[in-house]
Amino acid sequence: MGFLVQVLLTAVAVWVSTVIPGIDLGDGSTPAKVGTLLGVALLFGLVNAVVKPVVKFFGCVFYIVTLGLIGLVVNGLMFWLTGWTAERLGLPFQVTGFWPAFWGAIIVALTSWVLNLVYDRIADGD
């Protein structure tokens, strides 16, 4: 159940990131857009679970030298990779460049953080 909630929260965060020019969800009906968002959320989770640890391992010196700020760039690149992969898989989701990916990744991270805080508070019954 926790996995499904994480996918749904990530899908909402990705949807919020579409306010950035250069991040496009494509045209289609509402159910089609929801399906696209769920697919992109799954793909984003997969990219972050597989590719990001490898990048962190090989780039650990850059994380230390930049005091972790390179993580913002890595997150942007992971979001850009997600958009590129989604297009290749036939999902109508586009990220047109690094800067939209950079800002989109920041929005996804902040939105996910807030949604997870709200969900945790609701789940705990506070």
Protein architecture, described:
The protein is mainly α and 126 residues long. It is 77% helix and 3% strand. The chain has five helices and two strands. It has helices at 2-17, 30-58, 60-65, 70-88, 98-124, and strands at residues 23-24, 94-95. The chain has a two-stranded antiparallel sheet with strand order 1-2.
In the predicted model, the low-confidence regions spanning at least 5 consecutive residues are none
Strand content: under 5%
**Secondary-structure content class:** mainly alpha
Q: What characteristic shape results from the CA principal axes?
A: globular
Spatial separation of the terminal alpha carbons: 20 Å
In quaternary terms, these chains amount to single chain
Task: Tell me the major beta sheet.
Answer: 2 strands, antiparallel
| Helical amount | over 70%
- Beta strand count: 2
Q: For the largest beta sheet, what order do the strands appear in spatially?
A: 1-2
What's the total helix number? 5
Return the string of H and E elements: HEHHHEH
Chain-averaged pLDDT: 92
Radius of gyration: 15 Å
